[in-house]
Amino acid sequence: MKKYEQLIDQLSRELAPVKPAPDINRLALAWLAISAVFVTTITHLVDPIRPGAYSQLANHPRFLLETMLGLAAIAWTGLIAFRDAVPGALTRRFAVAGMVLMVLWLAQYLAGLISPALEPATLGKRNYCYLETMIYSVPPLLAAIYLARRFYPLHYRRTAMSLALAAGMMPALYMQIACMYLPTHILQFHILPGLSMVLAGAAVASLWRLQPR
């Protein structure tokens, strides 16, 4: 018995204090805020946004609704992804609610094929908006994966794909303000490139466990 007590004393002396893990919701919101600032800033630096886009938000309630739904869907997806990195932190109800919100947002653009929120026009067209959407989402995605890996997620591929969805849809949403408003263009060159980042998240996840934390 004395031998075991000595072993326990020896092990406890070698223990180092460990800082408590940061609050996962605050971390997710901080990532969302910083990523949003990055995406909007670099979008403005590359090209001017569509003239009159902000006044359209004030004068067209449905366009404002689309934008607010997008903001809510992206924020919720970000929370889902970061919660998924912590075992037991994500509930099924919270995840389903976020996916429903994302579907409701994207459905606005499908409805826009018949009845658009704004008068379709090519004003503000950016020649490489689809590339911008994908490229601008890469730094937020890599930052999110770096942060999430510290929590040792059990479903690492699912977590990475959720992070990629949130990261990819940020520039996709802002392109509705920065680029021209045409539902077919939005779906093909904003939404689809944003969704394609989920595949990039899956690819990154394949290397997830090969890298040291």
Please explain how this structure is put together:
By secondary structure, the protein is mostly helical. It has one domain (24-208). Helices cover 72% and strands 0% of the residues. The chain is built from 8 helices and no strands. It has helices spanning 2-13, 24-46, 53-59, 61-84, 92-111, 129-149, 156-178, 183-205. The two termini are 37 Å apart.
Supply database-style keywords.
single chain, 213 residues, mainly alpha, 0% strand, globular
Task: Set out the fold topology.
Layout: H1 2-13, H2 24-46, H3 53-59, H4 61-84, H5 92-111, H6 129-149, H7 156-178, H8 183-205
Pattern of helices and strands: HHHHHHHH
Number of domains: 1
> What percentage of the residues does DSSP assign to strands (E)?
under 5%
Number of DSSP helices? 8
Radius of gyration: 21 Å
- How would you classify the quaternary structure? single chain
Distance between the termini: 37 Å
Global shape: globular
Low-confidence stretches: none
Let me know the largest β-sheet: none
- What is the helical fraction, as a range of percent? over 70%
- Average pLDDT level: 88
Q: What is the tally of beta strands?
A: 0
Question: What is the SS-derived class?
Answer: mainly alpha
In short:
By secondary structure, this protein is mainly alpha-helical.
